[in-house]
Amino acid sequence: MPERKEKFYLTTPIYYTNGLPHIGHTYTTVVCDTVRRYKRMRGYDVVMTTGTDEHGVNVERAAKKAGIPESEFVANMAEAWRSLWDELGIPADEFVRTTDLNHVRAVQWLFKLCKENGYVYKGHYTGQYCIHDNAFVNDAKPGDNCPDCGRPLETLTEENYFFKLSAFQKPLLDFYRKNPDFIQPESRKNEIVSFVEGGLKDLSITRTTIRWGIPVPGEEPHVFYVWFDALTAYLSAVGGPDYEKRGMWPADVHFVGKDIIRFHTVYWPAFLMAAMLPLPKQVWAHGWFLMDAAKMSKSKGNVVLPRPIANLLGMDALRYFMLREVVFGQDGNFSYDSLVTRYNSDLANGLGNLASRTAALIEKNFAGKVPKPAERQPQDDALANGAQSAIGEVLERFDKMEFARALEAIWGVIAAADKYLTTEQPWALGASEADQSRKGTILWTTAELLRIVAALAHPVLPDSTAKVWALLGQTTPLDSFELDGLRWGQLVPGTTLGKLQTLFPRVDKTEAIERIEAMANEELSSASAAPKPASAPATPAAAPAVPEKIGIEDFAKVEMRVGQIKTAERIVGADKLLKLTVDIGTEIRQICAGIAQFYEPESLIGRKVVVVVNLAPRKLRGVESNGMVVAASVGPEGRPVLAGFLEDVEVGARLK
Ligand code: MSP
After folding, report:
1. Are 559 and 614 spatial neighbours (Cβ–Cβ below 8 Å)?
2. Which pLDDT tens digit goes with each residue over 390-423?
């Protein structure tokens, strides 16, 4: 049996759906994709996940503003995120949506484990609440106004479930000590350790004032609040309760921005400890991409979009810029000026030029076949040694997530080759046997160097390096090429070169910036004009849109009565339906109800329910249904909860 490859599981955060992706989000996803490609080339079985964080008040509001139900709103947004990642060539292997049923189940399962182990209790949460927006405002003080609508806030207390975070101060500090690489970079680790040393307060993990969330089973109207829901996505992506079957959990690394490091290095390991589940191996927090020293945000109007850049310069150019320009872990400034400058100098004049020069010279002098190297001179060896030692250095840099350093080493090799060609001047050599042979050695050497550069730079520049690879006549797919086997000297003389294509056409800076900005403006104005992306499929609504008002006479047309369930049975071939007989005071009715997945038939016998008695009869799966039992549709999965009464009521009584 072939040995199973070692697994590697990495994640991006799951992004909020109340906005669309900008280059800040793209940065995290690009980093993750780069590491995924790198690890695959090192022989790992890799899974990368991303997804969308779809619950909460902000989504409720955005959907209301767009005039569509939340479920439709988030489906459109998730589709927009997913399709952008596809378009940019950075799709995840698993895309989690927090409204997916698998995810809903995983959150409820994690809660159950924490509760069974004694780390969850009911308490009261008091905060500043905006009646108008139906939401607590974090960090507000009594007397403050709502930062969104400006109205005065009110102090409100609600019942919440709390997680005993306070019990994890020591276990967390022990964990950080035993796993010194868990939090990266080091500077962030110190910050988190002092935060935890300062003491941890218990955490409210449910809300009763939010509707759009995952229900806490049997505890309506409690829904899970933000982080308990969102963080669990990392587990639900790889099997949730069945994570052992998939064999990917625990995550090898969670990549996050520095804004959310605390949730990932304090809350998340504490939840998992409470549930007695394995902990992720590492959380890597990178810095922000800033625009004129400020964090990008829609409200500041300073967002940079990835698509226009990818359209004009290619996605490889954006990837290269992001990873080369900024030291991973630190903040960096984004400017179109430095993007285009790097594009022209490092990509068009650097890699692109070396590839086209080498290929054109081989084409002209050796009929497009890789020449055979003859006797080597010291300068050939120097170049070879430089490239060979770059292999080790680059792999080490990638292992440490030092992307800028890895690229610097690769571009050092490119610069050495440029210099080598300029001094050796193969184009100036004649047609004599000795000159031809020298030319062959020089061009084999630069071609071999290019092969090594292509393999090493592939995780960062997947498209253009694949083109260089094909140009050098390499037939094994570059993305599955094993970097561990990369050595100087493997380029086979006589290999036929592929077709030469311009990798990075030079651009005029001013013109390029104008074009990118024009495309970005167009995209931003069409996004704000149309809240739903045109290509997104509509999905069935779980929550109703605000209905039209009706008069009392319309309501009076619906006759509802108290009924009592006499019998209940499953219907063969219809796994959602139960066949009920219900006493409505004047007669016994047969009614089908779509509640089979949530209620055991036996548990319903004798229960008093609300029945719409004047609905026209209809057949469901061949069984006649004469009336309707009323239920609330709860949460994103639309779970039915039967309506009932707290006091005892007479069967047949009319609801008015
Ligand atoms: N939904 C939460 C995360 C839940 S993870 C269980 C969230 N979403 S978010 O849409 O706001 O995305 C935040 C992430 O986007 C950051 O952590 C970071 O990865 C990325 N970035 C957003 N803006 C950024 C910059 N300006 N620069 C770099 N990355 C930034 O928080």
Report:
1. yes
2. 999 999 999 999 999 999 999 999 999 999 999 9
CATH of the domain at 22: 3.40.50.620
Q: Of 439, 468, 485, which residue constitutes the final position of a domain?
A: 485
Residues 472 and 358 sit within 8 Å (Cβ to Cβ): no
What is the position in ligand 1's atom list of the atom closest to the CA of 12?
Answer: 19
> Which tens digits make up the pLDDT trace of 445-457?
999 999 999 999 9
Euclidean distance between CA atoms 322 and 460, whole angstroms: 10
* Structural domain that includes position 179: 7-286
Cβ partners under 8 Å of residue 397, min gap 6: 403, 405, 406, 409
Last residue of a domain, one of 437, 469, 485: 485
- Domains in the chain: how many in total? 3
* 476-502: pLDDT as tens digits: 999 999 999 999 999 999 999 998 889
Tokens for 437, please give them: 């042979």
318 CA from centroid of ligand 1 (Å): 18
pLDDT at 643 over 90: yes
Bridge partners, 593 (sequence order): 578
Q: Are 195 and 76 members of one domain?
A: yes
Q: How far is the CA of 280 from the centre of ligand 1 (A)?
A: 19
Ligand 1, atom nearest to 290 Cα: 26
Q: Provide the CATH number for the domain around residue 580.
A: 2.40.50.140
Query: Is residue 89 domain-shared with residue 172, that is, in the same domain?
Result: yes
Residue ID of nearest Cα to ligand 1 atom 15: 25
Q: Are residues 274 and 336 in the same domain?
A: no
Instruction: Supply 163's token pair.
Output: 């997680």
Distance (Å, whole) CA 221 – CA 214? 10
What is the distance, to the nearest Å, from the Cα of residue 366 to the centroid of all Cα atoms in its chain? Answer: 48
- The verdict on residue 591 lying in a domain is yes
- The residues lining ligand 1, judged by C-beta closer than 6 Å to any ligand atom, are 13-16, 24-25, 27-28, 53, 230-231, 233, 256-257, 259-260, 288-289, 295-296
What is the 409 CA–ligand 1 centroid distance (Å)?
Answer: 29
Q: Any idea what the CATH number is for the domain that residue 458 is in?
A: 1.10.730.10
- DSSP H/E element including 224: strand 223-224
Pair of tokens at residue 381: 């060896």
**Residue whose CA is closest, atom 5 of ligand 1?**
13
Is 312 inside a domain boundary?
no
Residue 578 phi, psi dihedral angles, 5° rounding: -115, 145
Phi (first) and psi of residue 551, to 5 degrees: -85, 165
Q: Are 61 and 194 members of one domain?
A: yes
Residue 100 within a domain: yes
Do 384 and 280 lie in one domain? The reply is no
Domain annotation covers residue 321: no
Alpha-carbon distance of 626 to 608, in angstroms, equals 17
pLDDT given at position 530: 45
Least confident of 197-211, 415-429, 518-532, 617-631: 518-532
45, containing H or E segment: strand 45-53
CA nearest to 108, candidates 260, 214, 2: 214
Residue 652 to residue 656: CA distance in whole angstroms: 13
Evaluate whether 220 touches 248 at the Cβ level (below 8 Å): no
CA of 16 to the centre of ligand 1 (A): 8
Same domain membership, residue 338 and residue 274: no
User: How many angstroms is it from 253 CA to the middle of ligand 1?
Assistant: 16
| 35: its two tokens | 């590491």
Task: Indicate if 369 and 460 belong to the same structural domain.
Answer: yes
Distance between Cα 281 and ligand 1 center (Å): 20
- Residue 475 sits in the same domain as residue 620: no
